[in-house]
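Weekly puzzle thread! Below is a chain. First person to post its structure in token form gets bragging rights.
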Amino acid sequence: MKYMVILGALALVAGCGSQQYNETQVVSEKKAFKVKSEYALLGSWKGDTAQIEFHGSHFNQVFSNSFVQQSQVQTGRYSHDGIVQKFHWSLDSAGIVTLNIVDGTCGIVPLDYCNVSAKKQITLSGSDISAATWEIKTDGDLDGVYESTTSERVVRNEFSDTQLHAGKQFLKLSDNFDRPLEMVLNDDVVNLLLPISTASTHKYVRLSGAVKQSDHSIIFDNHEGTTLSEPQRFKVANEADVLLDVESQISDVVLRSGLGDSVVIDYLITRKIVMPDNLTASQLDLSQFKVTERHTIVTKESVALLSDLSINLNETYYSKIPAGFSASADGAGHQIVFHEGNTGVISFIDPSNDNAENTQTFTWEYKNDQQVHVALANGISWDLGFTGTVLGGYSAIYQNESNDIYGHDFLTQGYVDPNTLVPGRFTLENTDGLSTVDVEFKENGEILIQAGPISFSGFWAVTDEREIVSFECEQHDGVLVTELDLCKSQLQLIGTDESTLKFGHIRKFKFLHSNGNKLVSTYNATAWGEPLTTGAVPVHFNWVYRWQRVGD
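Winning reply:
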């Protein structure tokens, strides 16, 4: 992804005052502005009524999404009257910036998949972009006519103490499904973890070095970074595919003040294929390979670990803990108990088989007053710490020595009677950490789940244990399974000759705590079939959700 270069026309002085300049002076000013203003719009700006945030590429999701990495658009956010709108933007040769405001109901990423609901055109005037006048025209109905125009002096947003602070901190990207970035800021030296992987945003490298700081940006000067080497498969003409190592490095790292408490991080990833002696680059299909790739990360807030961490023994907690469970997304369990003698158990429930044994044992110890170290018998280990309180528990961060890091709620035991909640309509945070999911438990026993363009349907019921189970099973002949027990048995036959299932998905929710229309719950699911998996066994999903009840 390429930065759009701010051309000299941005310096054109508009309005009646422009008459005091002759043509030579204007051309000279254009050239000077062009030289000084490459990447000049990136970061966030504030005027009397509006704030605008520009990204150097499409913002990255919390979790991997290949479509985001393939997107060619640059994104941003526009804030006015308390409403924040997302957009993708472009700059033409005349220096006019166009904002394509996307439909606020669109939960899809990348944003170029969303419908555009309005357009804005921005022209800048003045001799210095740091305090220019922005003329903003709005076409609210996409008829090509800009029906309103505003003009105001706009300046850069500066960093505040709530955005970044000295010492160790975590830059959160979302609320519950998070991949926070660890950052240590000491004077003019920064230590920062950034995603770099060729295939996803799950691999990280640690950068450390001197930075140049201003009121609105932090620029890495000369940094030491780790080269990440990952295997990647390439097609070879008239031969079998080959697996080659790809080395990736990070450069051009800039942190800028964003809207509110957010920080916008732009950087460049450069990749090189390690070629064997018997191959040349001309023999490879490099149509999908990017030598350089611009990344933009928009953080939500900066948090630090709480002190005086204390774990209650023999109490059941609920979260998402990668523990090496086979056929489980991220190998995660969701239920954790700390016992006396520094032992404990992590487990999860299979909603298709109540008798299945899914447990891992671990030992634990307090690492310091901020973290507890959990070491599983299979060699996996995590350092667990809390960054704040949430409904029903804490916001937690898990990290290990391999630079794996993620955030998820860590909830205590509780119980909310589901019969007081359903039927009803709800929204919840999606697992991508950015979009939302609409869930409707209908009075006729049907359920509808909508996540952007993806939808699931089926049936729901309240069990004897006062938990909600929903299920969707379809056989190869197109017949829908309407009985939960039959759906369970069909999922248990996956991988055998007796299986007749085309798609199956069973979900179990246990609501733990509520406050007004806000709720938290456990979540366990078992699924098989496109688009989730067609392997020999179903896949399991185990975590906790935040809900909001929005209607009956």
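Puzzle host: Confirmed. Bonus trivia for everyone else. The helical segments are 23-36, 66-70, 484-492.
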